[in-house]
Amino acid sequence: MAYTSSLNLPKHLLLPNPRRTRHRPSSSSSSSSVSFVPKAAAKANGVNGHAPEKKPPPPPPNGKALIDGVNGKKGVNGHVNSKKGVNGHVNGNKGVNGHSDRIHLSVSTGGGGPGGQDGSGLRVAFQGAPGAYSEFAAKTALPGCDTLPCRTFADALAAVERGAADRAILPVESTMEGTALRNYDLLLRHGLVVAQEINLFVHYCLLAMPGVRAAEVRRVISHPMALAHCGRALARLGVDREPVEDTAGAVEMLRSNRMLDTAAIASPRAADLYGLDVLAHGLQDESWNVTRFLLLSRPPSPVALPVDADAKTSMVVAHRGGSLMVLLKVLSAFSSRNINLTKLEVINNDGDGAGAGARPPVMILDTNARGAPTLRAFPHVLYVDCAGTAHDPRVREAIQEIEKFAVFVRVLGCYAADTTVYDLQ
């Protein structure tokens, strides 16, 4: 019997306090709202049509993302933000049911990417067509980098392995899907290391050919996950849904075939890139929609971190039996040294993948195997992210303790912990 469980510990994806990030709808309002944007932008002042604060505090110098509070209250970082919302528009537009948009996120990325990294001269492989969320995440993490579109995630990793790219970027977790993206499994099959992380606010828009009105749309195309994330909004619009390989690919298809009865779900940046009209903003069912991406490189890691850096170490622990006992020992190894965990996911599978609901064993590349690296199969796997660098004495001692009782341990990477949530501004 296979099951997957995730324990998301403090700081994982910066899950916010709902009272600070969502507007409380009235009894007559729906649980989700989509803001249709006419060609002439809305003229309303302030967030949700409210007047802006008279004396807003100065913007934070650290380039962190700020979540606007409700009616001028403090946001996630304790700041008041009454300026323009997502995509630089004033969020006074009305939604499908006459309600205003609910999520307002503004980001000051400042100079350089997360951790001050510069991507000039680096090539980053991503899955999808130009304009995909992965591409924007890569350009945000490494400003100035060149991007290489790939058909599949496996192709992106292969591009790094053969030297055609310096990095590959993979989405690995989502606040709406959890770890269902399953790209961790793909990561384990390759010998690349995690060099960087970035959290991106995924803001879905409904895009159409110039001049097409929302009432003329009969079909919506996009990646299956994007369609699922916008299910309630699409149901209210009463349109057919057709899955394609990725969001940017849907936009590319829409543009090249000049589909006048079809819209695509993609990012606001994709609309600018392909010259399409934005019919609706904030199409996602849940206003707080963040995806975590990992940037991978060939070993050793190209980013050197001091021992006292604000960092994360990712690892995988595999074993063949006694799952609960191993889990408790792993927790003890970190807690006894006062090391915080930011991620712990447990995968157990005692079956052969043939039964209903069963999944095959997890395949992990043993990069330390004698001779050539070898793929090994394990029925029990723990994904662990801990605070600290791999060469921190406490972290190193914890890993050495785990190696004494686990069948297999592999450090996936050590990288700067970036708690900022970036928007596509």
Automatic annotation (TrEMBL):
Residues 7-18, 26-35, 69-98 have a biased composition (Low complexity). Gene3D superfamilies: 3.30.70.260, Periplasmic binding protein-like II (3.40.190.10). Residues 1-120 are annotated as: Disordered. It comes from the Eukaryota. PROSITE patterns: PREPHENATE_DEHYDR_1 (PS00857), PREPHENATE_DEHYDR_3 (PS51171). Residues 109-119 have a biased composition (Gly residues). Pathway: Amino-acid biosynthesis. Pfam families: PDT (PF00800). Residues 123-298 form the Prephenate dehydratase domain. Keywords: Amino-acid biosynthesis, Aromatic amino acid biosynthesis, Lyase, Phenylalanine biosynthesis. InterPro entries: ACT-like_dom_sf, Preph_deHydtase, Preph_deHydtase_CS. The keyword RNA-binding does not apply. Transmembrane segments: none annotated. The keyword Amino-acid biosynthesis applies. GO terms for molecular function: arogenate dehydratase activity; prephenate dehydratase activity. One of its GO terms (cellular component) is chloroplast. One of its GO terms (biological process) is L-phenylalanine biosynthetic process. This is Prephenate dehydratase domain-containing protein. It comes from Panicum virgatum. The lineage of its organism: Eukaryota, Viridiplantae, Streptophyta, Embryophyta, Tracheophyta.
